[in-house]
């Protein structure tokens, strides 16, 4: 079992930046790939980015490529999502998730992730 807690969400103007953080209480988190998804009102949950257990492999969804960076610190058991040049379309609840090694280094589908956080709200005003 991996418990994930997100933080760092908030209200920001278009063009601004936010840094989301995801903390896990279990040391085994370092063995899992990690990812971020988001869900806007009335829309399905969508993949944003993922990072392999070592941090050497990252994967991004096309809409955020070049604006968002995922990173992890296995010593601190955390994963971060740095979001720049935010747009109103980025408004959503952002979820952190952990994916077991069974799904490889580039998980990107929701059913490839075994554990989920409660989410943190990001609102981008125009």
How would you characterize this protein structure?
The chain has 126 residues and is mainly β. It has no helices and 11 strands. It has strands at residues 4-7, 10-13, 18-24, 33-39, 46-51, 58-60, 68-73, 78-83, 92-99, 115-116, 120-125. The strands form 2 sheets. Strands 2, 4, 5, 6, 9, 10 and 11 form a 7-stranded mixed sheet that branches. Strands 1-3-8-7 form a 4-stranded antiparallel sheet, with no helix packed on it. A hairpin with a 4-residue loop joins β7 (68-73) and β8. It starts with a strand and ends with a strand. The mean pLDDT is 96.
Blueprint (SSEs and pairs):
Blueprint: E1 4-7, E2 10-13, E3 18-24, E4 33-39, E5 46-51, E6 58-60, E7 68-73, E8 78-83, E9 92-99, E10 115-116, E11 120-125
